[in-house]
Amino acid sequence: MGTTTLNPPRLQRLRERFAPLFANIAAGASERDATRTLAREQIKDLAALGFGALRVPVSHGGAGATLPELFALLTDLAASDPNIAQALRGHFAFVEDRLVAPVGPGRDAWLERFVAGELVGNSWTEIGTVALGEVNTKVVPDGNGGFTVTGQKYYSTGSIFADWIDTYAERTDTGQRVIAVVKAHQDGVELADDWDGFGQRTTGTGTATFTGAVVEAGHVIDFDSRFKYQTAFYQGVLLAVLAGSAAAAERDFAAELAARSRTFSHGAAASANEDPQLLQVIGEVSAVAFAAAATVDFAARSLQGAYEAALALRAGDIDLAAEEAANDAAELATAQAQVVLTPLVVNAISHAFDALAASATSVSRNLDRHWRNARTAGNHNPWVFKARVIGAHSVHGRALPRIWAIGASGGSTGSK
């Protein structure tokens, strides 16, 4: 669309700003994983340093980062702790939605909140055997111009750290599907850290229960007005998690091999850290980390194209068909990236253990967390389905679905 998507000096400045905090985050990541300790303080520190306002324009007090710059920083963060990068997934999606929303006081108020360090969590997935696309979480008029929200959600990633919760629901008065942006800290909201996955253990992904939670009228948003590249954006964050996990594995397995002098009688060198076969393994993992970061960057550029198209359509500079094409391109790119990166990263981290011996499986070293994190991130939004719809695009020219649902039987779409 003509806008520079990567500003190397700005990205370098941002990396320098966050590098000390990222290093601190990395130092405690293994222990947090082992003890299932939520990174509350670390996420507060990120918000205080302006990480949540990276995409907010400079004119409104933010960093003005493009999407390729944001995803480069998310990959860096994921290399420090992929749980934190994923915990902020809902926040950055809501920021993106507000960036393409109509200009006005309502939008400006949200940008101010982001700059002030306020964070937004995610609460979309219904619990239980709901019909495909059914929404049991309801938004009810309170009779005084406002609303209340009642229902229960799972996979409420990041909400336990947040000030606000982006909640997918249905209005009882109109049947309209909406986003209710609920204040997290009120009596009608209960957040449980009951996610028990073997990886991504500390993302704050658990149950959110709303019991007559109050929501302002201005914070009930028509779902159909959401930014069109939202599913591709959500997938992009998971791509950054995978890329960061690969980089973290390269870092930690290389450090383990560097410190290892003992070798085997049938090894290829006098010490393990000079054994060419073992160095090759680390080199292969490094190459995967490089490829993953490059793939994330390409996907982020496609998202940037969709963002710019949304602004251009709003300004009347392009037509709807051109904007739709940009969104379709972003969906395709992130889906292709997911199909490639999920097995590539998971297998590379498994292969990294070949550079070490049995001691690499020590629980105290906790190296297996890298594989567990990548495997868990890769199980979100099953890539086998994405591969099929990519094939249908290649063979029949069919556009990939941008909004899809999960449930027990047939129904309408509209839930992620």
From TrEMBL:
State what protein this is by name: Alkylation response protein AidB-like acyl-CoA dehydrogenase
Protein's UniProt keywords contain Oxidoreductase? yes
Q: Which UniProt key words apply to this protein? A: Oxidoreductase
Top-level taxon: Bacteria
Native source organism of the sequence:
Paeniglutamicibacter psychrophenolicus
SUPFAM superfamilies per UniProt: Acyl-CoA dehydrogenase C-terminal domain-like, Acyl-CoA dehydrogenase NM domain-like
Entry-linked Pfam families: Acyl-CoA_dh_N
Residue ranges annotated for the Acyl-CoA dehydrogenase/oxidase N-terminal domain, each copy included: 24-96
